[in-house]
Amino acid sequence: MTPPKIDPTNPEALLNELFDDDRWVKDKFAEHLSGPILELCEALAGCFRLMTAVNEAATKTETVRTALVGAFVFGVLDDIMVSTKLLLTGKLPAAGNLMRQVIEGIAMSILCSADKPLIVRRKTKKESEIKMLYWDRLNAGDKLTRGYLAVDQLAWNAVQLGVLAVAVERLREAKDYYNTFSHCGTATITNRVSLEGIGVFHMGGHFDDAKVEVYRAELQGRIGLSRMLPSFMEHLLNTMTVPATTSATPAQRAEPA
After folding, report:
1. 191 CB contacts (<8 Å, ≥6 apart)?
2. CA separation for the pair 87, 6 (Å, rounded)
3. β partners of residue 201
4. N or C: which terminal CB in the chain sees fewer CB atoms within 10 Å?
5. Organism's domain of life (predicted)?
């Protein structure tokens, strides 16, 4: 199907574009990539089935800590769905930007699961190390619990949290990859340009036959992540059912070595 042409100088045409559901783009994705799309749905369905147990655990314990864990886990699953919907309407930069939140959400949910102080700032020549009860300070809006810091903070506390170094490294690699979609650069330009027609830019969503393997790789990345999530969710479930032993405390500065 030939992509519809839009006259961006016509306000009515822009209005129609804003409310258009990009059906032609979705049809092209279904034609070329129905297999991996179904695989992703099957993997995500297993995650959502486990989400019931996460919600029940959060409801049973009725603590801020478990509520935050449950909220972040649901956010991870929902963001994968929304990101994929954006991908299937041809909005790759926006889809990749949202996937960065998925990676940060995984890290933040693990950090929130701990009911003990964690390192949130490492010691440097100019600054002292800071430890804090992460979920408590997150709930208070502390700037040291902002999402962009979470993967590094997870790495610093990986042993204490029972997270394998290889898992942290994969999260770091994924975040670095999706960072390219979160800021203006060549990646965001490339994904608005047709590879088959030099100099042809697309407004809004589009499907480029020359980018089928790029789209396939994006879907495979989401499939791999979604297949890993059940073990991650089981790990968090175990932390949600263990009684809390540490009360909320303010940030702690480590004593100088």
Report:
1. 92, 93, 211
2. 21
3. 193
4. C
5. Bacteria
In residues, how long is the chain? Answer: 257
Q: Which segments of 140-209 does DSSP mark as H helices, in order?
A: 150-156, 158-161, 165-182, 186-190
List the 130-132 sheet strands across, edge first.
118-121, 130-132, 252-253
pLDDT band at 1 (very low <50, low <70, confident <90, very high): low
Q: Round to whole Å and give the CA distance between 160 and 172.
A: 18
Q: What is the pLDDT of residues 129-170, one digit of tens each?
A: 999 999 999 999 999 999 999 999 999 999 999 999 999 999
Picking from 149, 143, 145, 156, the residue whose alpha carbon sits closest to that of residue 175 is: 149
CA atoms within 13 A on the CB side of 60: 11
Query: How many helices (DSSP H) and strands (DSSP E) are in the chain?
Result: 10, 3
Residue 15 has pLDDT above 80, yes or no: yes
For the question of whether the overall pTM of this predicted structure is more than 0.85, the answer is yes
Structure tokens, 157: 């506390």
